[in-house]
Amino acid sequence: MIIDVHTHIIPKQLPDFNKQFGYGEFIQLEHHEPGKAWMIQGNKRFREILANCWESEIRIKEMAEHGIDKQVICTIPVMFSYWAKAQDCLLVSEFLNDDIAATVNQYSDKFIGLATVPLQDSKLAIKELERCMKLGFKGVQIGSNVNNINLNDQQFFDFYAACEQLNAAILIHPWQMMGQEHMSKYWLPWLVGMPAEISRAACSMIFGGVFEKFKKLKVCFAHGGGSLLPTLGRVEHGWECRPDLVAIDNKKNPKEYLGRFWVDSHVCDTEMLEYTVKKCGANRVMQGSDYPFPLGESIPGELVHNTPLNDKDKEMVFSGSAKEWLGL
Prior knowledge:
Layout: E1 3-8, H1 17-21, E2 27-33, E3 36-41, E4 44-50, H2 56-66, E5 70-74, H3 86-106, E6 111-115, H4 122-134, E7 139-143, H5 157-166, E8 169-173, H6 188-207, H7 210-213, E9 218-221, H8 232-241, H9 243-246, E10 262-264, H10 270-280, E11 285-286, H11 302-306, H12 311-326
Parallel strand pairs: 1-5, 5-6, 6-7, 7-8, 8-9, 9-10, 10-11
Antiparallel strand pairs: 2-3, 3-4
Helix pairs in contact: 3-4, 4-5
């Protein structure tokens, strides 16, 4: 079995949330030709997407072509809307989650749902998480920061406690990349900013003691952990040489947390995937493609197939580690 833990989906039609709430740059869809739509943010085109972003039948057909048995589906990060008023963000989250729930219910043998929540308000986030877990979701996708507040902030602790109690998996995805206003050329926010954002989230949670306080938290960092693993030696060296700056909230060596969190396999390089499995263990690496976007795997699962791992490790990456993370 192959479970792809990192794929994105969006409803075919979105309400005009800008008109409904009277402010903001909520995403709208402009279906400009059959099978294609522009995601419109304010007055600008954010991204063109294809029908496999919303048509389940097309996804299932492509899954069969790629040899994928199940997809974990979650919203596109730009839909998080953490910048909005919390109650409005809750309504957006409910709409997106209801669409995912309907998809999962219709094709329960193919799809597994991760929710989105208004994380700028922990009480509302917990409320929506609880509702979604009752609907059969297996966890939640959250951003790498919330309005530039790092994930070690105590305002998120009640939410983490709820995730522990509900046995909810957490996928942490980069968004609102730091410094993106200074590097718009060459697609640098996606090439440089996204890996840095995941390292930002992981280091914040490690140094902030989140994994010490919430020992049962099941966190997956997208994109192979971003730039965390390639720079882990530097991160550890900083912890050793300047504990007065780094180890102020958690005295443990950051390398001790390898094996405590999951990462997906979307690292785009066979040698890097070998390194990732060596560092984290095959039981903490999961097939993740970032389907259906161009920066994701063209053929989901191809990287794992082409990486010289033994059969046992490949089986673990393709399904075993995901089953543990999702509580299947």
